[in-house]
Design a protein that fits this description.
The structure holds 2 protein chains of 2 kinds. Chain A is an alpha/beta fold. Chain A folds into 2 domains: 14-183, Rossmann fold; 189-411, Dehydroquinate synthase-like - alpha domain (Dehydroquinate synthase-like, alpha domain). Helix content of chain A is 49%, strand content 9%. Chain A has helices spanning 25-31, 43-47, 50-58, 77-89, 101-116, 189-208, 214-236, 241-261, 265-277, 281-295, 297-305, 308-312, 314-319, 325-343, 369-376, 391-403, and strands at residues 14-17, 37-41, 67-68, 94-99, 137-141, 153-158, 163-168, 176-179. Chain A has a 6-stranded parallel β-sheet with strand order 1-8-5-4-2-3, with helices on both faces. In chain A, strand 4, helix 5 and strand 5 form a beta-alpha-beta unit. The longest helix of chain A has 23 residues, at 214-236. Chain A is globular and about 60 Å long. The two termini of chain A are 26 Å apart. The mean pLDDT of chain A is 93. Chain B has one domain (24-200). Chain B has helices at residues 26-49, 51-58, 108-115, 121-126, 136-153, 156-162, 174-189, 193-200, and strands spanning 65-70, 76-81, 87-91, 101-105, 130-133. Chain B has a 5-stranded mixed β-sheet with strand order 3-2-1-4-5. Classes of the chains: A alpha/beta, B alpha+beta. Chain A binds chain B through residues 4-8, 127, 166, 210-211, 262, 377-380, 382-384, 387-388, 390, 413-415, and chain B through 122-123, 125-129, 131-133, 136-137, 140-141, 143-144, 160, 163-168, 170-171.
Chain lengths: 415, 201
Amino acid sequence: MILPEFYDFCGRAKIVSGENALEKIPALLAGLDAGRPLIITDPGVENAGLVDVVKQAMAPGLESAPVYSDVPVDSDYHVVDQIAGVYRENQCDAIIAVGGGSVIDTAKGVNIVVSLGGKTLLDYQGAGAVRKKLNPLVILPTTAGTGSEMTLVAVIADPERREKMLFVSYFLLPDLAVLDARMTRTLPDFITAATAMDALSHACEAWYCMEKNPLSDTLAFQAIGLISQNLLYVIKNPEDTQARLALANASTLAGAAFSNSMVGMVHNLGHATGAVCHVPHGNCMAVLLPYGLEYNLHRRNEIIGQLLLPLAGPETYAATPRNQRAEKAITLIRQFNQDLHDAIGGRHPRFLSEIRDRDGRRLVEKNMLPEIAEKALSDGARVPNPEELLADDAHMVLEYAWEGTPLDRTKIKTG
Amino acid sequence: MNRFTPFSTAPADLGHYPEIRPKTSYFRKTYIAVMLLVVGRGLEAAARVDPTVRRIFQHLPDGFCLCLGVGPAGPWMIAKKDKKGRLRYLGWRRRAARAHLRLAIKNLASAMRVFTFQESTAQAFNYDRFTVEGSLPQALAFMRALDRVEVYLLPKVIARLAVKRYPGSSELPGWKKHLNRIRIYLRAFFPDLIRVIYKNI
């Protein structure tokens, strides 16, 4: 274990996980001195009937809860301000976010506006603008991947300025995150795979990047174990609630880990690829994770080798010579992508050129790679990556990831 | 009356409890001020000599003012991109209110770790020793320029501790590095260093 000279860790959200966890929300809200929550969700979640599940589960303890169900995929501050109006009109005193990353970030934005009394979210831009305890916020994740329920960040777009506003404050951590298998049971297999690989990338990067610390290591280690043991099983047995719950827990554990130890080049390149090519984040993470591990291998061989234990189990770990463990861990993650690709009938991409939209069009063209590499320089996830990643390095990695061939490690600049 | 007794019911005479200010280490402050001056002058020179640093500052708007230093009371290094698009080192007088980007190391002790190269800039960021006011992409670009300047200004054995990756010969050939280093040192310290010191005093 590496004990860094300095680290900080904060994970103050209460987690409720298990069968009938949803039914406990009214009592837990009462404990937070709230009784009239606004449910915030998106049309997809509502059409899947998940809001009805939540309302039915809460009905014995909660008289009524108004619902706002029009959160778009790329939510912006206008939506946040609009929902803040709905919250005030209905005299709500808490928020329940039911959804994935966009819904959760929107709910955090709404909570800033309604708790601090402003007219618009724009009033609270900038470092340190959110310095007070906000109203009770409950998060019910419907994907097992983003880990947003454990992060202190909200990203909300400003369409006029064409930029994403970043809000960072410990007060954005929710009061309560509820993990109930009913929330993820209907998730399609290809989204289950992509989001779980996103969680795996959170855990792996938290494990090997420069801000790793004993607490985030513990969480990341458990998350990797849960994902490697349950993901393929869930794809083949989507109705298994226990395995679904294991993935939801893994996502939350990984979220808490990376929220405190940050992520590295996998997310750096993934964010840039998403911004340039509008590729689903989970797909990018699945493709880029083995490349991130390979690129940093010369600096983190021992640490990456330790990932083999949660990935493959104690027998394989013990049977593999110490100097081969890191290579084996990377091979296993590639094999994991291959197995998911086979199990989902080719809908899980193994390399960048395989990522396609609903109409079958390729989303990442090879001529876009230089732009992605340049864009990656502006992303904060570069900093905690153990090896320097400049535009040339990023371009080299992206080319291999596009073609789907392992990295030629002789081309990595080691200084 | 014994004003120090905790059991006294008399109102506290707050005038007898002056605010205790931490002592300033003038040696540390002076050392960091000198290092910031070297970095500032080095940045200005490197922005003309080295294409990588020049490109980084080309992307910033004209009139862009940046400030690097130690919070809360300094010392500081102020640099500004002038109307001709050239980076100019303005000195150590804090004009933080006008800075578009302000990177502050949180205290002198942390600044000493960075400027004695016990920690690289990236490691200091990861240990949460910096506060950034302004745009994060611009802060990251500035850090890249800073790393490049450190490669030129410092001998290899020290620069290796200051940057995440010391550029190999494929990234920066040896002859080019030495030639640029001489040019940067000449530009940084001879023509108008006196002008900067005079203006700031």
